[in-house]
Each structure stands twice: as C-alpha cells, then as structure tokens.
Amino acid sequence: MARKGGNSIRTKIYHKFRGVDFSTDPSLVDDSRSPWAPNIYADMGGMPCKRPGWMTVKRIGNEVDGVFRGEKINGLFRAKIAGAEHLLCHAGEKLYKWDETDAVPTELASGLSKERSTAVYLKEAVWIFAGNKLLVYDIREGEEAPSAKDAKEIATVPLVTIGSAPSGGGVVHQSVNLLTQKREADFCGDGQSTEYVLPEKDVKEIVSVFVNGIPLEKNKYNQYGELVAENWKLDSAAGKLNFANAPSRPTIAGEDNVKIVYTAGEDNSSKIANCRIAIAWGIGGTEDRIVASGNPEYPNQDWISQFGDGAYWPDLQYSVVGSKATAIVGYRRFGEQLAIFKEDNGQDSTVFLRSGNLGSSGEAIFTTKPCVSGEGAVSRFGFGNIGNEQLILTKRGVYALTNNILTAEKIMQNRSYRVDPKLIDEEKLSESVSCAFDGCYLVFVNGHVYGLDGRQQRSYPSRSDTEFLYECFYWENVPARCVLRVVEGDSETLFFGTDDGRICKFKTDDKTLRRYSDDGDPITAIWSTKQDDDGDPMILKTLLKKGNAVTIKPYDRSSAKILFRTDQDAVAWQAAEGTMDIFNWEDIDFARFTFNANDAAQEIPLNRKVKNYKRLQIVVKNETADEGFGVYAITKHFVSGNFAKK
Hints:
By secondary structure, this protein is mostly beta strands.
C-alpha cells in the first residue's frame, strides 16, 4: 500500500500559547491552547508558567486536646481609618482584628451568624453585614482607636418634625430610621401650653427632653435626694407629654426650643440587620450611600441608606425589584447607574438598572427599571470585573453586562466559553466566590480557580452569544471560602480564608523561588498539547529520536518531566526529564550545583522514538516545590507512514 508523503521529515512547533480549552474534545483544540493545564497562567509576555503559590499567615480557632480546631473564615475585610490600615476577619461567630505578624487576633465582637458576610467601606468606616446584625468598625467621638459596635447602638435618631406648635403639626423633616425606634420632634414653645402632642400615638418611652438647650429630667429631687415632683408625664396611648410648668418661649422668635426624643413603632431593625448583600453607591455613581439586600424574608427588596450615613436607613427608602419569586443576588456599578442582578427563573428580568437624581427640594430620588431578561446571577459573591467590564457568574458560565453595538441596549454576553463545561459542572456553584486580581477575573469553587485573563489578547469566535472571549486558565488546590483583594499603590495582594480557620495569602510579592509552593507543598503545574493527529487521523506517524525538544523558561531553579500519550496508551508515560538551573550565589543547592550562568531559554531534548501512532499528546510537567516553571515552545519532527487499518 502506498504511503502518504513518503519518508520526508515533517516539523510541528507548538508556540504562541494562549490558555486552556475545555469546550471541545482534546484532539480538536487549537494548537495554541491546552486541553489540560492545571496551575498554569500566562506571564506578562503571554507564555504559560507556574502560578504563584500561597502561604498561611494566620490561624483562627482553638486548641482542643492538643488539636487545633479552626473556625470557618466567613469574611475578610480591610479599611484605612485615620491613616492606618486595619484588617478584619469574621471567623465562626466572632469578628477579629488581625495582621500578618505573630500577634494573636483581637476579638472585637461576637454573636455573628456562621455564614459568610459582606462589608462596605463608607466614610472611614467598615459596615459589616453579618447575616444577623449590622456591625460598624470605626472611631467615634471620644474614642482613641476604632472599635466594633452594633449599628443599632449608634443608630442616627431622625428629626421627624420641626416647627411644631405644642398642639402638634409642624413640618415633616426626616423619615423614620429602620435601625432604631427613637425619633426626635422639635417644638416652638409658647410660654403657656403644658400639653405637647407628639407626631405619633402609642409612644413607648420618653428618652430625653431639652428646653432651651438644657436637659429636663422627668423627676425633680430636693437637696436630700428626695422626689418632690415630676417635671413631666407621658400619656403613652395619646402620644402626649404633659409638663408641670409650661416651657418658655424661645429667645429667638419662631425658633424651636423644645426637643423631645421618644420611642415608638415596631422594631424593624432586622430588615437591615439580616441583609447579606451590600454595595456603596449613590447619585451620579458616587459611593456615598449603602444599598443593601439579601434579607431572606424580603428576597426582592432592597434599602438605601441616608447620604454618608450607614447608621440611618429611612423607612421609605426601599424598592421592590421585580418578582418575589426571584431573589436579588448582587450589585455592580455600571457607569453612573447601579446594576441589580437577580436569580434566573426563565421568565422574569434578571438585571435591573437604578438611576438617582435630586428632586426640586434637594431630596434623593431613585428609579429602577428592568433591563435584561437573560442569564441570572448564581452566587452573591460571584461578581468581578476586567477593566470597566462587569462580569457575573451564572449557571451557564461567566457573562458580561454590556451594550449592544448597534442598538446601545444592555445585553449579557458569555466570556468564559472555553472553561464553561468544567466550571458549570462544579458542585455547589452557588457557594463560589469571585474577585478581580492582576487584570484577571477569578472564580474560586471547591478548591479550584477558573480565571479569565484580561491581559492577553481577546479572541473573536463566530458565536451568536458573544462578541469576544477571554483566554482562560485553571488552578487546583486553592481552598478559598472567601477572598480579600488589597490594593496599595501599584501593588496588589490577594488573601483568602478557608473552612479550617486559615487566612492565606498568595505569594505575589515574594521574588524568590519560595513563591512556587503552597504552604511548602509542591504545585503540580502542567502544560499539555492537544491529542494531535497532525491533520490526518488515518495516517500512521513516527516521532524521530532526534530533533524533538521542549523549550523551557529560565529560572534559578527549574525542572520538567515530559510525558507522551498516543492513541494506543491508556495513560501518559514519561519520555524525558531535565533540570534547567542557573547559577546564583544567593541560592546554591549543592545537590544540583551548576556553573551555568546563561539566563536564556533552554531546551530539554526528548531523544525518544515513537512508532506508528495516529495521535500524539505531549505533556510537560513540574511537580517540585520552590521551582519556577514555564514553557516557551514544543518542537517535534516526525515522518508519515502507512494508512491506519482501524
């Protein structure tokens, strides 16, 4: 039988690598992508290299019978207050302040829920939505250092009416604050009236009374401490305060000089305290208010705080967003607007847009309208961005909220197609957490990381559901339950918390080879070619013994194992290995001493002949701790043989 192509030597070079592709059969991916490349990401030149490792910087828990039992890390937060950096951690049922030193974390508060929390930074304060209470960490008047308080304890008391006559009325000034049952009503005394009518009936308690700026206690005592009279009495049901002596007129005519703080109404603080989702946003896209949702009793409602004040939530400043059948899952800023993302039930709108402006009297007016019926958010922590593009994790992959080029309408477009088959098959995808980091968007779930790389050139496939796709990468052994991205100047740091009480940090700031291990353990990094038939699956090929090599990125210490897998092999088998070390006075390993000072790329020759294969996959692997690893190119030379019989 005639042979196709004779014995002429053919060359195949895999280079200009991009990312992973799980979207198709391993034999059909593009030459520049890999069907399997765990713990690899692109360096700044776009070449695949081993990801940075992580290290444990703090453990939170207790010793029980000599065994450390860690508390689940439910949230990591950071803020700058009075010029100082503060790192906070919600672990188990407690809130701690911590740092990267050996110091024991400082307990700040207890009684928090055991679920994951979220936080918003507003006006040099961290507002933590813990699922069962709203905490604030800040410095209050009279304090020397920040502390954590229940927001109910420092809730702003609204001035509900002003300019009231003793008989009541006046001008409605501020709305009731959901965090507190306290309200203040201001009156203009007439010097004659002793009965003052409050704005509400069924008043529970008088908290304080001021007349002409001087506090007026309820009881009047003599010099011996004996009760001799009452300065005022409360008629709770009628909502009236009866003074023993009529308050005087104000010194400035028409000015309010009687201030009464009272409690009334129902305790509605749980509406805010039980929220689990929040973002800082305001009119014009500013970050001067807090928008909160996620209360299980009100799945499609959210509330907006007063300007610059997370301790004041006006009772009428709320919205019902779409159907109660689908819950609000999260928020993202979209220009000056706020995008509200909901669950997907296949019928209702999944994205709403909120705008804000000031009314004629200077009051804030917010309007919300449906925007997109499409993919719904799947996790309340599944949001991030690449540049100005907002990304949302859905049950069908990562989607971007963007504008239609032709109509300018808001649409959702897929950006993660190449990792979607594996990503959307992850268990408990709704428990995943996402963030932006180093120009990428990362999704952490079940110890895996799916990354969309915003630093590489985008690809433009002929697909109807997207304009472009990001290149993707995939990592293993990253047990993140929650994440914290810290940006300081030009540097970024990424922390994550685990189920077993560890606070860990990616070693991106470590310039030594120690960055390439996870708490000292090796990182198994692999780059695989596709199962390549070289354009014809029915022609048998033979890989020559000479002329084949893997070009390795230079590091002070590096090594690689090269494995082959043909269509005849159940598993890959090792064909070659090699070390690629560079001499460095500061890091000498006498077991692998080398005089090589050349920091150029180097080749590991394969020197193995492989006969009569239809498809060949080449796997390059590094699984040694504290070694760098990267692949520039894979070169093979082969000849074509007979037609395959089957």
